[in-house]
Every structure is written in structure tokens, then in C-alpha cells.
Amino acid sequence: MLFATTIFLLFFLPATIGSYYIEKSFFGNRFRNIVLLLFSYLFYAYGAAEFVFILFFSTVSDYLIGLALRESKYHRKWWVGISTILNLGLITYFKYANFLVTEITSWIAAMGVDAPQDWVAVALPIGISFFTFQKMSYIIDIYRRQAEPITRFVDFALYVAMFPQLIAGPIVRFKDIAVQLELRAETWERFYLGAMRFCWGLSKKVFIADACGQIADAVFELNMGALDTKSAWLGAAAYTLQIYFDFSAYSDMAIGLARLFGFELRENFNRPYAAVSMTDFWRRWHISLSTWFRDYLYIPLGGNRKGTARTAFNLLLVFTLCGLWHGANWTFVAWGLYHGFFLGIERLTGLRKLPQHRWMVPRRAVIFLLVMFGWVLFRSENIASAIGFMQTMVVPSDLALAFDVYEVLHHRNILFMAIAAAGTLGASRLPTIEDIMRCEGPLRAFVSMVLLFIMLPYCAGTMMAGGSHPFIYFRF
Asked: Helices 383-394 and 229-260 sit at what angle, rounded to 10 degrees?
């Protein structure tokens, strides 16, 4: 089930809120986690019923291993190893088996040997990349004695499967939410802020991300013979804006939905296109993922404490795996290496240490262009297509605008793409929806009315007409 669908907005969400607060009224929070957990499993089962057992099995496994870590004094590494093998084994099989079989089959065929043809493609369980990393952080934090294991299975299962962040993050650290699982307080103010944040995210998705996505899809689906320089730059810019507004919209909606039930999740984005270095970009982009790799892989590998060569190696390894985490395709690996390379260059040259305000405008422009070229790798179907697309961007050519592209360049899409560009490339610090909603006064009231009485009905109407696209990170 997706947030930007009528069944979620008109049926699932009201039923969940109603059941949750009815329980609160009659039983005083005694069963609130059970209610939320049941609806979270229903949310998951709606789109992937065949994988509910996988989610449940992996949850039970890590719950028991967490308890074993608390009791064990001499075999703690064994328990962590078992959890790691189970989690990585599941994600490797479901996410990378098809890719590995395809690659091995092509290598065998290249050697002139007939490869077996009876492989049945493995379907990918939605959200597996996100809930796997959440469970791994839980076990590692217990092993490091940075957290105590949950004794109630319902609480742990809710931590893993809570529907606002289940299928596309943000990746929630157990230590950030452990206390809230038992002691959170639902208030009218928190509910109001959550509802406004959800409406804001939904509006970003339907108005801006989908408008940019129509343009990006039209360009990237062109064959190379119909692609020229202006179309390539248009497509790259559109996708650069789409992926930010699409994914940050999902994070906004997840944070808002969690707030409806008393939870406070950490922010996942902080104006990434205002970055003045690649290092700065990764402090602002998909923060829950970048900090996960930092804390559970980069620092344990030695971080930057073992010399320049080792630091460069660690960065390349971490970002190769970061790219691979996004999907089983060489384009994602290349995207990860691309970012790891520039991060290594910044460390070697000392550019990452420049003061934030020094040459801010040209540095922002350079980083934005580098990130844009990286998104071409990320969006392309294969490496050859990415190279051809980027070559068209830098080698001038001029063809008549393809009809498929012309068709999506109508006033609505152009307007919202322009708004997206102005919002991301403008001042480095602009008021956020959080800033506005937390300030009492006429501005808050005005924005609330616009969100509730203009944007929300428009979004609902668009979804009913089938005009909303799936979230990009839904497939990761």
C-alpha cells in the first residue's frame, strides 16, 4: 500500500486513527501498540501478502537473538554473527539473486558453455532494505551495550514494522525510538503538526515530484538517436528535482504519520542541493542511510584513523555498498563509486575543510552539477545508456524536440518544475514547514487552510484519477 493512494487516504488511515484512539479512550494505551502493529501488518500485507512471513520470521529471529545477547557473556559475537548472516542472507537472496544469476549466466555463455535456463525470477519483498538495516542496528547496538533489548515482542515487532516508515524509511535507530515505544504521549498539538506535515509531503509528491517525473520519464525513455543536448539537460534536471522531492515527500509523510500516533522520527533531509561539497551533500541527503553506513561500517573499518590510503579505500568500499544497497544493477555500483571517488578527492585535497561561506555560490553550482551527473547514472537502465546520455549532455547536438517530450512540457509541469528549481537552488536557508507550523500566528493559519482545503482535495482528486506515480524509493 502506498501513501499516495485513495485506499490509504480514505480508508486505511481513518480506520487506523479511529481504532488507535478508540483503544486509547477505553483501555488507556494498554493495547495501543498491538493495534498499531496489526494495522502495520495489514498495510504490508495489502501490497505483499506473500512476504508477510518473511517479515515476521526475521522479526522473531532478531527478537530472540536480542534477548540471547542480554543473557550471554561468552558467545555474544556468535549471536551477532548469526543475526548478520540471517539478515544479509535474506536481503542477498531476495534482492541480488536475479542479478547474480544473470551475470553468472552471461559469463558462462561468453565462455561458450550452455548455461541452465530453468531459473525462476525471485520477487523482491517491499521495504526489505529498510527493515533489514533497522534490525541490524538494533542487534549491533545491543552488542555494543549502547541499548537494552526489548522484552515485549509486540514492541519490537512494532519498531520493525511500523507502517509510516516500513517500506521506504527513514531508517529508524532503535535508540532513538526505544523510550517512545512505551512512554510516548499523544497530544492535539502533535497530531495537528503531524497532519500538516503529512499534507505537505503529499502535496510535494503530487504537485512537484510527479510533474518533474513526467518530464524525466519522457526524456530517459527516448532512444539515443532522438536525444539531443537540450533534451538531455532537461531530463537530468527534471530527474534531479524529482528524486529529491519524491523521496523527501515520503519522509515528510512518514514523519507526519508517525506523529499522529505520538512518535517523533528524525529528519531525513536538510536541503541537500544547498551543499557546498560532496561531504556536505551526504550530511544532508538521506541522513538516516548515510549515518547508518558511517556508524556501522565506515567507523568500524577504521574511518579516517588509519592513513590516507586506508581512508580512501574505506570511502570507496562504503559507497560501493551504498550504491549496491539501492539496487542490483551495475549503474548503482557505479553511482556509489562515483560519489566515493569525489569524497576521497575532497579528503585528499582538504576541500571538505573549507569554511561553509567561502565561495559558496560557485561551490554550490559545482556540487549540484556533479550530483546531477551522478543521478544520470542512477536513473539509467545500464552503464552504456548512462555514458551515452552524459556524452549527449557535454557534446553539443540539436534535434527537433521529440513528441513524447513536447507532450509533457505543458504549463502545469513547467510551472511546478520551476517552483522546484527555485526552492532548491534559492537561498541556502529558507523556512521549512516545521518552522511555519511551530509559529503561532496568521501565517500558520493561512498555510494550514491552504494545505487542508486546497492541496489535500486536489491531491485526492488526482489520486482518484490515477494521476500519481509510485514513489521512486518504493522499489529499494
From this structure: 120
Both 116 and 196 in one domain: the answer is no
pLDDT at residue number 427: 65
- Distance CA(263)–CA(187), nearest Å, equals 11
326 among known catalytic residues: yes
According to DSSP, residue 375 is labeled: H
CA 79/CA 173 separation, integer angstroms: 20
- Taking CA atoms, 427 is separated from 72, 138, 364, in Å, by 53, 38, 11
Domain boundary among 183, 206, 239: 183
Q: Is the peptide bond before 442 cis (omega within 30 degrees of 0)?
A: no
- HSE-up of residue 435 (Cα within 13 Å, Cβ side): 4
Catalytic residue among 286, 326, 339, 469: 326
Can you give the residue range of the structural domain that contains 264?
A: 190-276+354-470
Q: What is the CA angle 113-119-120, rounded to 5?
A: 160
Sign of CA dihedral 425, 430, 432, 436: negative
Q: What is the mean pLDDT of residues 93-120?
A: 76
Identify the residue with better confidence: 158 or 447: 158
